[in-house]
Design brief:
By secondary structure, the protein is α/β, with parallel strands linked by helices. It is built from 14 helices and 17 strands. The longest helix has 20 residues. Bound molecules: NADP nicotinamide-adenine-dinucleotide phosphate (NAP).
């Protein structure tokens, strides 16, 4: 008999999809995975804030019915050491929208990384990271309010595909022989060898998702970030396939940056998203110097990894950066930082990353009013200098509060919104 610990709340209804659109009932069942380390602290606090915002926005007409799903250490306790039970995977697929805290991969658990396994098993091919500034948050920039981008990072290929051969191993020798003798490649002896596959299928579905997001959310541009000047057939091809998908699938609603100047005199026509591209290294500089020129960003896996954290740092760091991993039909929202084990169960850390992932989740299911309440309340609480330790150490005269204390302050603010 398989072990089962999963119970969907009977009072809720599952989200479904029709013609590629989510159908969200007023009583949806959403999944949550508490996570390891600081996960339980930030999840407990965030659940209270999301529920308070939904209650305030819809006065009981809408309510989330939460289903706890198990992964990581909590799963291991319940499922005889299994850190990613089948029923959790099935539930994430069936419920379609879930949120998770950070996870440790226990040593000897049989997984290279639990997060990577999750992405691969559910084919969550797009890592989506919205990065924007909330007033009052400590930032190293002079004008952090100019940063407002949504990064779509390809999640399944590139050097992350795991095709690597260790220096000196028989496999590496075989690949070396083939490359040197048959392909005429030259490189130093005993090199470790990694392979970087980038496909039209993987690139196009990622860019398609980014462009669709830009159109649906009235964004101005999609920038394809690549290193195609050096890696022509991988990074350069990503760029070319990106333009191709824009032309083929969204010809009526997109124009290229070249067309913007050659046909439209630099004035963006109403209802058209501009597709442009930038080389990755320059993009880091531009995001510091001229961030307002960028909106939606679509990029390959490794570029996206670096770029997401660098841009997040411009507006307050990974402690508050939200994220999600998505396939065509399944979305798993998540805190982007790790489990910070030294702070586990101290009720100390910043819940911001998970909290804002939940705000994005509310937007994703179309509950914008509830999302907006949190987005409006947050800067007010920061303005009062009520913050967790990480912000307190960067601000003068701050009142340092616990994770749950921060949630309390936010809920008080949400409950006060609109009451004059
Ligand atoms: P980490 O857990 O992100 O923590 C690194 C540092 O970032 C912390 O010591 C803390 O800085 C700061 N930090 C992280 N979360 C914070 C929060 N909510 N509020 C305030 N500060 C926060 O990175 P790590 O120590 O490298 O990784 C620990 C474990 O997490 C590893 O097992 C790793 O595999 C796992 N991990 C999981 C995920 C995921 O599940 N998505 C992602 C990354 C890592 P200070 O010490 O300066 O206060």
């Amino acid at each position: 008999m398989p072990i089962t610990h999963l119970k969907f709340p009977e009072s809720g209804t599952k989200i479904s999809s029709q013609n590629n659109q989510l159908v969200v009932p007023d009583n949806p069942i959403l999944g949550y995975v508490e996570g390891d380390g600081i996960g339980p602290d930030i999840m407990r606090a965030s659940l209270r804030v999301w529920d308070a915002a939904v209650k305030k926005a819809y006065n009981g007409k809408r309510k989330i019915h939460w289903a706890e799903l198990f992964m990581g250490e909590k799963a291991a306790e319940k499922y005889e050491g299994n850190i990613f039970p089948d029923e959790t995977r099935q539930a994430l697929q069936e419920l379609m929208v879930s949120i998770k805290g950070p996870l440790t991969t226990p040593i000897g658990g049989g997984f290279r990384s639990l997060n990577v396994t999750l992405r691969q098993m559910l084919d969550l091919y797009a890592c989506v990271r919205p990065v924007r500034y909330y007033s009052g948050v400590p930032s190293p920039l002079r004008h952090p309010e100019r940063v407002d981008v949504v990064i779509f990072r390809e999640n399944t290929e590139d050097v992350y595909a795991g095709i690597e051969y260790e220096s000196g191993s028989p496999e590496m020798r075989k690949v070396e022989k083939f490359l040197k003798e048959e392909m005429g490649a030259t490189f130093f002896e005993d090199s470790g060898i990694g392979v970087k596959p980038i496909s039209p299928f993987g690139s196009k579905r990622l860019v398609r998702k980014a462009i669709k997001y830009a159109i649906d959310n009235q964004r101005k541009s999609v920038t394809l970030v690549h290193k195609g000047n050096i890696m022509k057939y991988t990074e350069g091809a990503f760029r070319n396939w990106g333009y191709e998908v824009a032309r083929e699938d969204f010809g009526d609603s997109t124009i290229t940056e070249d067309e913007l100047y050659s046909k439209y005199d630099g004035k963006q026509p109403e209802g058209k998203v501009v597709i442009k591209d930038r080389i990755a290294d320059i993009m880091f500089q531009l995001m510091l110097l001229r961030p307002s020129e960028f909106d939606v960003i679509a990029t390959t896996n490794l570029n996206g990894d670096y770029l997401s954290d660098a841009i997040a740092a411009e507006v307050g760091g990974i402690g508050i950066a939200p994220g999600a991993n998505m396939s065509d039909h399944v979305a798993v929202f998540e805190a982007t930082h790790g489990t910070a084990p030294k702070y586990a169960n101290l009720d100390k850390v910043n819940p911001g990353s998970l909290l804002f992932s939940g705000v994005n989740m509310l937007e994703y299911i179309g509950w914008k009013e509830a999302a907006d309440l949190i987005t409006a309340a947050y800067p007010e609480v920061i303005r009062q200098k009520i913050v967790t330790y990480d912000f307190a150490r960067q601000m003068e005269n701050a009142t340092e509060v616990s994770t749950s204390g921060f949630a309390d302050a936010l809920i008080r603010q949400i409950d006060g919104v609109g009451e004059g």
